[in-house]
């Protein structure tokens, strides 16, 4: 596969898809009939990209987006940061639910292009950032994190920052498909869903996903 611009890559390798748990939102997602869906590491390197997390509707993100849409009072009128936004699914849900402002952050520049396309598809608007926000104390009052704690390294950096933000009065909601890293870190569940995901990137096609907050 020849190297493509982010826009070309997304156009050739994704299709408009409504995640099963959040059918009111459409995203440019990897389709089984297209090469990116099952591309190996060497193929991704040839394309000049990392793992295409932005191309899948992860179950933790679906659960968090569903919770926001079902409980719009959780975001209405608030300044929101969607951290590790990927496709922008959670950011889109936050805009629909009435957030005062939404910033979607992902360090992958291809994810930034995917989010730009996805907000246009859904007729919403939010800010897109590609800098690493870990350790930053911003002006948001709600932090949304959809399934980012997938390994110990990222969790080791992320969780202390999220805890610090919670201590200063920022609400934190975490979408999680059952990562063992989050089992004993002082969280309490606010919702539980069955959320479909892909066996290409996960070990199961269906996850029992939860939304967590830090316990008081």
The average pLDDT value, as a whole number, equals 86
Total domain units: 1
* Terminus-to-terminus distance: 50 Å
SSE succession? HEEHHEHEHEEHEEE
CATH topology: Rossmann fold
Shape: globular
Based on the coordinates given, report the CATH architecture. Answer: 3-Layer(aba) Sandwich
Strand content: 15-25%
Q: If helices are DSSP runs of H or I spanning 4 or more residues, what is the number of helices?
A: 6
CATH evolutionary superfamily: Vaccinia Virus protein VP39
- Order of strands, main sheet, comes to 5-4-3-6-7-9-8
**Which blocks of ≥5 consecutive residues have pLDDT under 50?**
none
Detailed description of the structure:
The chain contains six helices and nine strands. It is of the alpha/beta class and 216 residues long. It has one domain (55-214): Rossmann fold (3-Layer(aba) Sandwich), CATH 3.40.50. The strands form two sheets. The protein has a seven-stranded mixed beta sheet with strand order 5-4-3-6-7-9-8, sandwiched between helices. Strand 4, helix 5 and strand 5 form a beta-alpha-beta unit. The chain starts with 5 loop residues before the first helix and ends with a strand.
């Amino acid at each position: 596969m020849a190297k493509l611009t982010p826009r070309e890559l997304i156009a050739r390798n994704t299709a408009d898809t409504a995640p099963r748990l959040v059918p009111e939102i459409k995203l440019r997602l990897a389709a089984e009939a297209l090469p990116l869906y099952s591309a190996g590491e060497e193929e991704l390197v040839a394309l000049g990209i990392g793992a295409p997390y932005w191309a899948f509707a992860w179950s933790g993100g679906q659960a968090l987006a569903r919770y926001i849409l079902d409980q719009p009072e959780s975001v209405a009128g608030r300044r929101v940061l969607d951290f590790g936004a990927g496709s922008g699914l959670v950011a889109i849900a936050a805009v629909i639910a009435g957030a005062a402002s939404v910033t979607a952050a992902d360090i992958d520049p291809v994810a930034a292009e995917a989010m730009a396309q996805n907000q246009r598809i859904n007729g919403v608007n939010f800010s897109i950032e590609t800098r690493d926000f870990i350790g930053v104390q911003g002006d948001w009052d709600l932090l949304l994190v959809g399934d980012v704690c997938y390994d110990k390294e990222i969790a080791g950096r992320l969780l202390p920052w999220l805890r610090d933000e919670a201590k200063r009065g920022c609400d934190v909601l975490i979408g999680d498909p059952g990562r063992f890293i989050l089992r004993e870190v002082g969280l309490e569940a606010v919702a539980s869903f069955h959320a479909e995901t892909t066996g290409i990137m996960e070990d199961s096609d269906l996850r029992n996903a939860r939304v967590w907050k830090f316990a008081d």
